[in-house]
Amino acid sequence: MFFTCSLPTLRRAILAGLMFAVVVGLLAPCAQAADKLTIYSGRGERLIKPVLDAFTASTGIQIELLSSGTTELVNRLKAEGNHTSADLLITNDAGSLELARTAGLLRPLNMREVERAIPAQFRAPDNAWVGLSGRFWAVVYNTSLVKPDQVKSLLDLADPKWKDKIAIPNSGSEYLQAGVSVIRAIHGDEKTRQFLQGLKANADGQVYQKSSQIVDAVAKGQVALGIVNHYYIYRHLATQPNAPIAALMPDQFEGGMGAIMNVAGVGIIKSTKHLESAKLLVEFLVAHAGQKLFADLDKEYPLHPDVKADPALVERKSFRAALVPLTKLAELREPTLTLIEQVGLR
Fold first, then answer.
1. Closest CA to 305 of 294, 291, 322, 321
2. Nearest to 134 by CA among 148, 119, 147
3. DSSP letters along 195-243, please?
4. Residue 289 neighbours by CB under 8 Å, 6+ apart
5. Nearest residue to 88 (alpha-carbon basis) of 115, 57, 67
6. Which end of the chain is more exposed for a tag (fewer CB within 10 A), N or C?
7. Cβ of 335: how many Cβ atoms within 10 Å?
């Protein structure tokens, strides 16, 4: 027995079959991964976006970046709770990440790739945040005005001989807050207070919102010295190789506290609805390729032990870091802010 149908009916059947095939084909990739991740970022967009663009090129997963101050972002996450659209938090400071972790905002991770790539001292105990790149609080000096042996310690910058000759970050700087927290942990409140009072007197009007402005002031000879994260010095030299500036890693003498270290890092938001894609991004950032991007583009020290820093940087093995655990930066912050306010740094 044979069944027949009219030509219009046959056409409709074929068209319906084709439409079904197209819809299935379009939906299949979407079922495998989110097509977009939202990141709250406390890092400058020009520093993190090239790395995120490389991730998008590799995976097809788009990134929506919301950049602001880290404290504002952590407070926003607390206010938004489980209704936040954020999937990940990226910051310049381990202390801020630890505050987010203790507030229950971040998801602990059990990822072998993370534990293989990033040493334990650069991660939260439960891997709720993971360090991505290292930075050191360094002294930038004008090579025409200062000899490197004139400064042995950060605390030397409080000496009256540097009156009107130094530039410092303002009191809202996360770098300043973290650096002073480490000094407090090692030297105690009274010695730290004396250091801050000396800095205030010596810097006077040379207080800057941006570290790049400090480096520029030193390069122009407006001041002899400044305190910045090391990479600002090397980024300046990358564009102006003849600038009369150099980096000095302080406190390396016997009994010295060592150079103050912090890390930029990432955490996955506890309420993310795109967990697998967020994990893919973390995996990309800690892997060799991601770490090399931080090293090459941003002049930061990679945390992956097999990735080399930019050869222009001071060799990492040639200096010691202060031994204050990064996780302590969170609990140290409030007393540090109180001390900074009491001294009257602006």
1. 291
2. 119
3. HHHHHHHHHTT-EES-HHHHHHHHHTTSSSEEEEEHHHHHHHHHH-TT-
4. 54
5. 67
6. N
7. 14
pLDDT in the model for residue 47: 84
- The single-letter code of the amino acid at 95 is G
CA angle, corner 214, sides to 213 and 220, nearest 5? 85
Weakest-pLDDT range from 34-43, 250-259, 280-289: 34-43
pLDDT tier, 45 (very low <50, low <70, confident <90, very high otherwise): confident
Q: Which residues pair with 135 in a beta bridge?
A: 262
**What interhelical angle do 328-343 and 94-102 show, nearest 10?**
110
Phi, psi of 297 (to 5 degrees): -80, -40
Distance CA 248, CA 227 (A): 10
Full set of structural domains in the chain with CATH: 31-134+263-317 (3.40.190.10), 135-260+331-343 (3.40.190.10)
In 271-311 the beta strands, taken as DSSP E runs, fall at 301-302
Beta strand residue intervals within the chain, DSSP E: 36-41, 62-67, 88-91, 130-142, 166-169, 207-208, 225-229, 245-248, 260-268, 301-302
